[in-house]
Amino acid sequence: MEAYDENLRRLQAVAEKEGLILNPDQERVQKVVGLMTENFTAVGEYVCPCKQQHKPPVKGADTLCPCPEMMDEVAQEGHCFCRLFFK
Predict the structure, then answer these.
(1) So what's the pLDDT on residue 43?
(2) Which tens digit of pLDDT belongs to each residue from 37-82?
(3) Which residue among 7, 27, 30, 65 is least crowded, i.e. fewest CB within 10 A of its CB?
(4) What is the CATH number of the domain that holds 12?
(5) Is the predicted pLDDT of residue 1 greater than 90, yes or no?
(6) Structural domain count, the chain
(7) How far is residue 17 from each of residues 6, 22, 52, 59, 84, measured CA to CA in Å?
(8) 13-21: long-range contacts at Cβ-Cβ below 8 A with a sequence spacing of 24 or more?
(9) 3-class DSSP string for the chain
(10) What's the rounded mean pLDDT across residues 19-23?
């Protein structure tokens, strides 16, 4: 649970820095953060579970969170692809 909590704090800091919030749906947040934490435990990188192309994740080959497209997605859709970050 410590790795999950650390990742959640990291993502909350990203949201705050960018003027965003995390999804108010706590189940969605728990799912995405949990899967991302599992990826971090496996390969040492915060691989985005929603954009992940390799199962299991491959270090250096999968999209990391936050992804480069996040802010564009939020600007266009009001949230990122994963529905983790919202305006």
Answers:
(1) 97
(2) 999 999 999 999 999 999 999 999 999 999 999 999 999 999 999 9
(3) 27
(4) 3.90.460.10
(5) no
(6) 1
(7) 17, 12, 24, 26, 15
(8) 14/66, 14/85, 15/85, 18/66, 18/70, 18/71, 18/74, 18/85, 20/74, 20/85, 20/86, 20/87, 21/85, 21/86, 21/87
(9) CHHHHHHHHHHHHHHHHHCCEECCCHHHHHHHHHHHHHHHHHHCCCECCCCCCCCCCCCCCCCECCCCCHHHHHHHHCECCCCCEEC
(10) 98
Q: pTM score, two decimals? A: 0.94
Residue 72 lies in domain: 2-86
The widest CA-to-CA distance across the chain, in whole angstroms, is 34
Reference 76, options 86, 65, 68, 67; nearest CA is 86
Give residue for tokens 């299991």: 56
Structure tokens at 83: 């529905």
